[in-house]
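Ticket #4471: structure export looks truncated?
Reporter: QA, pipeline team
Priority: medium

Steps to reproduce: submit the single chain below to the structure queue and open the exported record.
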Amino acid sequence: MNIQAKLSVTYIVLLVIGIITISAYAILSIRFYLFAEGLEQFKDDAKIVRQAVESSDENTDFFPFITQTSALFDYDLALFDSTGIPIYNTVPEQQFIDSREFLSEPVVDSIGRTGDRIYVINDPEYERIVAFAEVRDGYPSIHYLRISKDKKEYYEAVDNIRHIIYAGMLFSIAAVMVVSFVFSRYMAGPIKQLNDAALNIAGGKHYETLEIDRNDEFGTLAHSLNKMAEKFKQDNRQLQILNKKQNQFFADIAHEVRNPLHTISGAVEMIQMEGLSEDKKQQYLHTVQKQVERVVRLFNDIKMLQRYDLDEHFLTKSEFVVSEFISQLIESYRPIAEEKNIKIETELLDNGSVHADKDKIDQVLDNLITNAIKYTNEGSITVRVTGEGSKLWISVMDTGIGIADEHLEHLFDRFYRTDKARSRDKGGTGLGLAVVRSILKAHNTDILVSSLPAKGSTFYFSLDKVS
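Actual output as written to the record:
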């Protein structure tokens, strides 16, 4: 049984029980009320009949008068003398079929104990209601009267009302069944939609959205599912991009390793040739050494990137003065720069301290300064330290070949080269700037670049000052 059928059955059963209970209570309440009102009216009518009896005398055409009076009220009437012997009965053929219709001594005693001299007998086991009254004036020899009536006459109005209630109850049940079906469909429809949407999302159909315009929990849940589907879509798109990058990454590694291995293999074959001069052997050995160093640098860079991706303890921070650190660092690059007739200088405009991983910042500056020397054929390289509020800005500026705008967006991607052939010739691994970005990201900052072709480039980043 589906949820709609369950909801329909549940609503119908509950509402039918409610309708039946309310109808039964209404019928019983009306029955009790009408009978209670009938008893009061019956007692009042007994007083009226007694008054009619007391107002007559021996000169009155008594018995026809009394017969007409009782007929007006539709009661059975009997008159008794002082000893309880019946003198008159409006239904002589009925006689007295039950002892409760006789004027017994207990009844006389009961009449005497009432203030209005009227005693009503309403026995649940007897089908008639009986009232006895004492008569003190009027026709001689009449001392008591009795009126009685079948209780069914009081319940006739209840029966009519009961039929009306039953008809209304049946109509209500039919209406409840229709309303329950509509309401259960209204309630179950969104559940089915939500279930189908969840299955679609689980099946990878993230492009589908739920159109449930309701200001209730279903609408909220539909909105949440749509957000979840959108998040899955974004994550799936991101995974596709990452998978593509990963495939490209492994292809680049294979390519980067294959080239030096081919060079090494060729150099080894040349060294093994007979009659090769010593100078040539040394040249090929130098080539092998350079290619081995290149592969080692490649795997060191890959290891660094892997640590950034996986190692929570990637950084080991300490406090140091940046200007002093750069002053010592820059000296190791002067000989290399001078070989290319490049002037290398510093502008240390702030002596602030930072709390960072000194070795990793050394590696960042090594990559940036080495690249500046590689791609600068003439001019100068300047390493600048400036302060701005709570930050220290470190810049590496060169007057080299510069970088075209179309390359700036991908400059820090792994294995991206603006000129692949020239980059390999210069011994690059294609991972240096990716390592730089990873280290700075770990320091909650980033590497920025501005460049003009044939004018030079500026790489710069910030670190938080120690307050």
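Status: closed, not a bug. The export was complete when the record was re-opened. Leaving a note from the reviewer for reference: Residues 315-464 form a domain with the Heat Shock Protein 90 fold (CATH 3.30.565.10).
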